[in-house]
Structures are given as structure tokens and as C-alpha cells.
Design goal:
The complex is a heterodimer of chains A (about 350) and B (about 90).
Chain A: H1 2-7, H2 9-12, H3 18-26, E1 29-33, H4 37-48, E2 53-58, H5 75-79, H6 84-95, E3 100-105, H7 113-117, E4 122-125, H8 130-142, E5 147-153, E6 156-162, H9 170-173, H10 186-189, H11 193-211, E7 221-226, E8 231-236, H12 239-243, H13 247-251, E9 264-268, E10 273-277, H14 286-293, E11 298-301, E12 305-310, E13 313-318, E14 323-326, H15 331-342
Parallel strand pairs in A: 1-2, 1-4, 2-3, 4-5
Antiparallel strand pairs in A: 5-6, 6-7, 7-8, 9-10, 10-14, 11-12, 12-13, 13-14
Chain B: E1 3-6, E2 20-23, H1 28-38, H2 42-46, E3 57-61, E4 64-65, E5 81-86
Parallel strand pairs in B: 1-5
Antiparallel strand pairs in B: 1-2, 3-4, 3-5
The structure holds zinc ion.
Zinc ion binds near residues 172 and 249 of chain A.
Chain lengths: ~350, ~90
């Protein structure tokens, strides 16, 4: 313990943490879902802070365009074609060998999320889509695990801290998923590294408060931050808990965790394609979607179907949001492409 | 007197790229209707056909969520600021 205290001395000197807080942190278990921009910043900081164990789950492989903001990775990792979870695990072990690090290559879905978060003291959101966030919310509320929402695109982002049954949950604030195809994503609208670092750092600070026994100091508002406009704002959300009729934390209905909400993915036999069914009524605005996708690849649409071609893939989406990703049989790849370009 | 309304990125194609627009009205609904007159199409993106605010959109008057005030009937006074905040997906 004494040499550990030396290692973390600058954090231990901070009176709200102290030796007691550090000892708790060393005992704690954190799960980071997603290992892109937000996830790498979170993992790096929590690993250096001396979190006892870090589990990181991500479905993607590294691409060159990740390096602009995904701080744990290098050109060498990209050349090796490593999955993000594996490259992150390697790097984190170099950063702090005292931390138990586990990188898992998997698509987080309603069938496996419970096993990933089992025993977690805190979950950090680093995913790139709404659906997984609503799923995290369900599992966190069901098992009373604190979790921290964070998301960023362009130059702005949002964060809120959820302590189930004490603060509002994500569904208290955002009652349902937006329809696919209307929200900007990092792959259509771009994203600046600084906003990712701001949002991820807010999330890490929140996690450290919770893990060191300082839950009374958490952020209880919805934080909006824009690094380009140099503005930030906090919105009151406390009454959403006392006055809302949230399906998750008031009624106890976990629609995403039960697989009743959210998409289903089917590999289409012998066709090298995967179908993604949103399972909701949607009406896509092809005109808007085409405008966003044109700078990135060829787009064709008529009143029924929009086709978007990108490298070796084609994403075809129907008016109701159903998508077919051609050029892969891998559901992870298909889900990832759909989330990145159509946005769900 | 007109007040300031913060428009999210998703709707800025309808407001000629403007992030903050000014609008007049005595309630949130009147503000939205005033924006709709200047920038047709905005109301449809915020409200359902039956007039209720869409479930994935949150509207705040200053720092308060209108769902816990008077919803679209929430009164607006001169120094108020209205923000329309949808959830963000990116990570
Ligand atoms: Zn709730």
C-alpha cells in the first residue's frame, strides 16, 4: 500500500479523495462500454488513477481515421488491424500494470449486457449510438449500478450522471429513441478531439467521485458543452425523477433489456449481407439523409429506398428505417456501419 | 420583445444554418409557431401531428424542462431563453 500511495500521491493529496478514497478506488471495478474516442480517454484516465479493474467492451477494428482523437492507439495498431478492445488492453497494461485490464471484442446487446456489467461499481458510456445507451440505462437501473452518460459530435456534447432511484435516469430525460437518420453522427458531421476530451473527462471525474465514496458531490444536471462556441450550460433535471412516469426507473419496465425495443440483426444467407430491423415505426427523410451522406460516398434514392455506397459496402435503407448492409456477413460490422452513417 | 431560441444542429438546415434565432410569443407554443412562420418545417420536427412535443426532444426555458413546468403552455417573459435539446448519439 505505501508504494501505491506514492504512485497516486497527487490524487491522494486531494483532500476529498485522500488515502481512504484511493483505497476504495483500488478496490473498484469499472466497465467501459465502447472504446472509441470517449472510451479511450476514459480508460486512460481511470487506468492512471489506479482503478482496481477495468473491463472494456468494443465491437470495432481500428481504422486510420480513429487516430485523430482515440488517444490509446498508434499507427502500428492500425497497421496490425487490431480490434480496439485488444489494442486498448495492450496499451493500458503498459500505462499501469497494477490495474486488472480486460478488453473484450463484442457487440453489446440485450442478450449479453448483463454478463458484461456483472459486479461493476460503475459503468461508463462510450458507445456511438442511442440504442446501446438505452440498453445501458435499463441494465444499470435494474441492477442499481451508477452510470455516466456522455456523447459528443461536431464541437459539442452532453453528459449526465445516473444513480438509479436517486437521480433521473436517461429515459426520465429522453423518453424514446429518435428515429434513425435524423441525428448527426461523428462519421457524418465529424467530431473534434477537444470536445471528446471534455465530455470523457467530465465522465471520469463523476466516476472517481462515485468510486471514492463521494457520490454526494456528483453532477445532478444535464451538462451541455460546446468547445467551438466556447459556451456551456447546465439544465435542471431533478424534477424528472419525482414527477415523471419513466418506464425504467418508475415503472420497472426494461423494454430495451427485454429486447422489446431496439433493433434485430439477421445475416441474410448466401448474400453476404446483413439486415437490420429497427422494430419501430419510422419515416425516414431521404432528402436530409442524402444531403449528409453525399460528401462521403455515392447516394441514390427513390421514394422507397436509399442506397449509399462506401468503399466495399453498400447500405440500403427503406422508408421505415429497415436497413440492409451489403459486403459483410458480420452482424457487428453491419451494426457499426448503420450506427455510423444512418445513426440510430 | 423577441427572445432567443437555441436551435439544435438537426434543425439548422431549416433555419439557414442559424444556431440562435429570435422569436416572439407569450408561451412556448407561440414561440414555436413564430419560428415556424419564419422557418417552415421546424414545428413538424419538434411536435407530433397531435401537437405534443416529440418524445426524443427536450425543450428548456432557461434551465428548466418544460415537461415539469406547463409544457407548451409554459409562459415566456422578456429575458427568457428557450433551448431545444435532442439526445446526442456520437461517441
Ligand atoms: Zn427513469
Amino acid at each position: 500500500m505505501p508504494e501505491l500511495l506514492e504512485k497516486y500521491s497527487r490524487q491522494v493529496l486531494f483532500p476529498e479523495i485522500g488515502e481512504k478514497g484511493q483505497a476504495r478506488l483500488i478496490q473498484s471495478k469499472v466497465v467501459i462500454l465502447g472504446c472509441g474516442a470517449l472510451g479511450t480517454v476514459q480508460a486512460d484516465a481511470l487506468c492512471r488513477a489506479g482503478t482496481g479493474s477495468l473491463r472494456i467492451v468494443d465491437r470495432d477494428f481500428l481504422e486510420e481515421s480513429n487516430l485523430q482523437r482515440q488517444t490509446l492507439f498508434s499507427e502500428d495498431d492500425v497497421q496490425k488491424g487490431l480490434p480496439k478492445a485488444v489494442a486498448a488492453e495492450n496499451r493500458l497494461r503498459q500505462i499501469n500494470s497494477s490495474v486488472r485490464v480486460e478488453g473484450l471484442v463484442a457487440d453489446v446487446n440485450y442478450k449479453n449486457i448483463e454478463q458484461f456489467v456483472e459486479g461493476a461499481d460503475c459503468i461508463l458510456d462510450a458507445t456511438d449510438n442511442f440504442e446501446t445507451r438505452f440498453l445501458i440505462n435499463d441494465v444499470a437501473v435494474k441492477y442499481k449500478i451508477p452510470w455516466i452518460y456522455g456523447a459528443s459530435v461536431g464541437s459539442y456534447g452532453l453528459s449526465m450522471t445516473v444513480i438509479p432511484f436517486e437521480t433521473p435516469c436517461l429515459r426520465c430525460i429522453f423518453e424514446s429513441l429518435p428515429p434513425p437518420g435524423i441525428s448527426p453522427t461523428c462519421d457524418t458531421a465529424g467530431v473534434l478531439a477537444p470536445i471528446v476530451n471534455v465530455i470523457a473527462s467530465i465522465q471520469v471525474a463523476e466516476a472517481i467521485k462515485i468510486l471514492t465514496g463521494n457520490s454526494h458531490c456528483i453532477n445532478r444536471k444535464l451538462i451541455f458543452f460546446d468547445v467551438w462556441k466556447s459556451s456551456w450550460k447546465q439544465y435542471e433535471i431533478a424534477s424528472a425523477r419525482s414527477e415523471g412516469e419513466c418506464p425504467a426507473c418508475q415503472v420497472g419496465r426494461f423494454e430495451f433489456l427485454e429486447g422489446k425495443e431496439g433493433s434485430t440483426v439477421t445475416t441474410l444467407c448466401g448474400r453476404n449481407s446483413v439486415q437490420i430491423n429497427q422494430g419501430r415505426e419510422n419515416r425516414l427523410d431521404f432528402e436530409q439523409l442524402a444531403k449528409r451522406l453525399r460528401p462521403l460516398g455515392a447516394v441514390h434514392f427513390n421514394q422507397f429506398l436509399l442506397r449509399f455506397n462506401l468503399d466495399n459496402f453498400e447500405i440500403a435503407v427503406f422508408q421505415d428505417g429497415r436497413g440492409i448492409v451489403r459486403g459483410t456477413k458480420d452482424p457487428n460490422v453491419a451494426r457499426s456501419l448503420y450506427a455510423k452513417y444512418i445513426g440510430a | 420583445m423577441p427572445i432567443q431560441v437555441r436551435i439544435p444542429v438537426q434543425l439548422r438546415t431549416l433555419t439557414n444554418g442559424e444556431e440562435v434565432v429570435s422569436a416572439s410569443g407569450k408561451s412556448v407554443l407561440e414561440i414555436i409557431e413564430d419560428i415556424e412562420r419564419k422557418y417552415p418545417g421546424v414545428k413538424d420536427r419538434i411536435c407530433e401531428a397531435d401537437g405534443k412535443v416529440r418524445r426524443f426532444v427536450n425543450i428548456f426555458v432557461n434551465a428548466e424542462d418544460i415537461r415539469f413546468l406547463d409544457n407548451l403552455q409554459t409562459p415566456i417573459s422578456d429575458d427568457d431563453e428557450v433551448s431545444i435539446i435532442p439526445a446526442i448519439a456520437g461517441g
